[in-house]
Every structure is written in C-alpha cells, then in structure tokens.
Amino acid sequence: MSSLQHNHRLLLNPIFIAALILLILNDQIWKYSYGNTLTGKLSDFSGLILLPLVIAFLFPAWRKGAVWFSALFFLFWKSPWSTPFIDWYNLIAPIPISRIVDYSDYVALFILPLPYWIIQHCQSKPIAHFIKWQPFAAWSVLLLTSMSFIATQPPLWYSFQQSSGNVSFYNCKFKTGLTRAEVLQKLENRKIDVQVDTALAGQIHLRNFVHSDSILANDPPFYRIPQLVIEEDTLYEVQFALMPQTKEKVMFMLNGLQVDDVSEGQLTRKLRRMYRKTLKKELIYRSLR
C-alpha cells in the first residue's frame, strides 16, 4: 500500500469502533440520564481517540503529526479563544455546536498515546476476513463519526427538563393540543395551584433561549405545584415545563417532585414509575383532556 493511500484499518479497528459507540451513547443518552463528572469527561476521552485516527485516515501525509494537531486543537477548543469561531459558525451552520470551557477537561490529553500507538502500528491488512467492502465500510464509519462530532447539542426537550426534587423523570413529555394559557386555565379550573418556578428560571441553561427565542428567555416556561392532593395521597413540589410543540401549542413536560418521607436510596425504579403513572393520570388525562 502506498504511504499516501487511505488506510482503512485506521477506522476499521476495535478501539476506534468502541470509542465511537462510547461517544454516541454518552452524548445522546448518558449525559442526560446521569450528568456526572464521568459522563462529562467520557466524550473528551473518546473524541481524542477518534480525532487523530480520522485525521490520519483523511490526510495520510499528515499521519505522523495527527496526534500533535489533535492536542493543539483540543487545547484551543476548550479555551475562550474558540468562542468567536463558534459564534461565527453558528450563524451560518444548520446544526449549531457548543462547548463548555472547563480546563479540567485537559486531563483527556493523557489518552493520546493510544491513538499514536494505533497510527504507528496500524497495518494495511483487513481488520477481519469477512469485511469485503473495506472502502465502503471505512467511509461509512467516517460519516457516522463526523455526525457524532457535531451532534453534541442536547435535544430540545432537555433544556426544559429541570427539577430540584428528589424524584426526577427523564424525557417524560405529553402532547396537549393546547396553548400555554389554555393548559394553565384548565389546571386552575381543577383548583390546582400552579406557580411560576422562579428558582429554575434563573438557571444558566436558559441562556440557550436567548438567541433562538427571546420570549422564552424573558418568560421561562417552568412551573411548580406546591401541593397536589390525589385521593388519599399528597405530593409536594411537583415540577413541570410547557415546551413549545408548534407555533402556539405546547407539550407538557413532567420533571419531578419532592418526597420527604423517602430517601433517595429508597427511590426504586418501581416507585418512580408509580409516581409517573399517578401524575400522568391526574395532570394529563383528568386535567388536560
């Protein structure tokens, strides 16, 4: 194989595929399900495995410097110097990008010896005999990798999912077919005390709305029900958001509640499902339908 040919094995190897799967799962699921220090760093480690190998694959003549370029790019990307570039890109790009300046992310640079070793020892032979269409497979993996690099923006509903209670719900949203005013009126008609959740209204994530929807930025769609009596039970601090679905209609997003007599360790999945089912019945089917 010529030194200037694309080496498909750079992308078609177990380490690259495992890092790609880890990146996708972390960015699209784990970050929003758990949101801890580990998930905050996993994407950085995965990305710094993938990026040098992608550069070495696309630009064979640069493969010896791919790791060094990746390190410099990561240092730039995680610094305030990249902010003007990101702002300019988001003005013209159909898919916006973002990042958080956190210098502790630089710990991910310690993973770079791994892609360096792969580049130095990667052979031209196939990863496995059953892969007959190496070029097609490699370029398909490259396309998926490119999409995963830019698809780090959280889904729209994630910005509306905020709870300070010890019982929280994940992606628990329901179509209403109503406007925000109509939803609030129906809840008021059932004598349910609904208040604007001013505590959540000041969260940093609301900055996401500033450029895309100034109305939401000035009028955050977060609400709380201080006390909700359901038959013989009383639930406290029920939190929800009214997320735009169409130009006027909204989606009801159930976020969480506070259970004072139960510790977080006792909140089993079964118990969470019970609260979710109860609130869905009371707030959606009885109040909004």
Which labels suit this protein?
289 residues, alpha+beta, TATA-Binding Protein, 6 strands, 15% strand
Notes on the structure:
The chain is of the alpha+beta class and 289 residues long. It folds into 2 domains: 8-153, no CATH class; 157-285, 2-Layer Sandwich (TATA-Binding Protein), CATH 3.30.310. Strands 1, 2, 3, 4, 5 and 6 form a 6-stranded antiparallel β-sheet that branches. It starts with 13 loop residues before the first helix and ends with a helix. It has helices at 14-33, 37-58, 66-77, 83-92, 113-121, 134-150, 180-189, 198-201, 208-212, 214-218, 269-285; strands spanning 167-168, 173-179, 195-196, 222-230, 233-244, 249-258. Helix content is 45%, strand content 15%. It has 11 helices and 6 strands. Helix 1 (14-33) runs antiparallel to helix 2 and helix 2 runs parallel beside helix 5. It is elongated and about 70 Å long.
List the helices and strands and how they pair.
Blueprint: H1 14-33, H2 37-58, H3 66-77, H4 83-92, H5 113-121, H6 134-150, E1 167-168, E2 173-179, H7 180-189, E3 195-196, H8 198-201, H9 208-212, H10 214-218, E4 222-230, E5 233-244, E6 249-258, H11 269-285
Antiparallel strand pairs: 1-6, 2-6, 3-4, 4-5, 5-6
Helix pairs in contact: 1-2, 2-3, 2-5
Q: What proportion strand?
A: 5-15%
For the secondary structure, the number of strands is 6
Low-confidence stretches: 126-130, 204-215
- Contiguous helical run count: 11
The protein's oligomeric status is: single chain
| Whole-angstrom Rg | 24 Å
Percent of residues in helices:
40-55%
Task: Provide the domain count.
Answer: 2
Largest sheet: 6 strands, antiparallel
Distance between the ends: 67 Å
